[in-house]
Amino acid sequence: MIQIHRTRGIVLDIKDLKEQDKLITVLTENGKLKLKGKGMKKSSAKLAPYFQLFNLVNIEIAKGKKFDLIIGVQLENSFLNLKKDLSFLFYGFYFLELVNKLIEEEISDPKGKELFDLLLECLNYLDELKKDILPLVLVYFQLKLTKILGYAPQFENCIKCGKDNLKEKNLFSFELGGVLCEKCRNNREGILISDKLRETGTYILENEFSQIFSSKINNELLKKLNKLMQIFIKYHLGDKEIKSVNFLEYANFL
Description:
It is built from 9 helices and 8 strands. The protein folds into 2 domains: about 5-75, CATH 2.40.50.140; about 85-250, Recombination protein O, C-terminal domain (de novo design (two linked rop proteins)). About 35% of the residues are buried. The protein has helices at about 80-85, 85-100, 110-125, 135-150, 180-185, 195-205, 210-215, 220-235, 245-250, and strands at about 5-15, 20-30, 30-35, 55-60, 70-75, 170-175, 180, 190-195. The radius of gyration is 20 Å and the shape is elongated. Helices cover about 40% and strands about 20% of the residues. The protein starts with a strand and ends with a helix. The chain is an alpha+beta fold.
């Protein structure tokens, strides 16, 4: 008897598989799945139009040998607005690639659901096409993603000795994943960050988007946090490269 189950997923990646098939990567509430879309390269394939990047879909899946098979689908949200505007599209590409590169398959709950909810939340913000929120959505996503994955940057206390009464211009160590006080920094490599940057990073990590947005964080601070987070995430990626990060600079000029 064929084993069939259903899941809700966001399409992260699409690749060709053999002559007529496609390999679809989706983020579900239980983690990341790679699914075989049999015959989806054919122009007559009925299910293929539903599997585009960003699409939120309800998928019917049958057990397969190497990859489970897609046998049915319902479209829940195609995020058409963000797909029509290059600025928002580029941010979306970055979010999808970041999730795809940073997480493994089958992440256990509640982490899987938290990741799914975060990506869906931020895609919804992008789909609103409000350019004034882009810098905040970007840093919010970066920080919350690392928090869910268990290695959020430590901004509040010295990561080595735990000192909490930190002075202006503390060293942020990418190797250790947090700030170092004057006594502990020694010859460590990193970048100097201000108290305001530390406080902003902590505030975003600890609060919901609506509350953060209402506080009107300065865009210059958000730009600095984004640069810090890009280096921080690159450190955790190792040899993996986030190609879409180059789109972010271009998106700011559109």
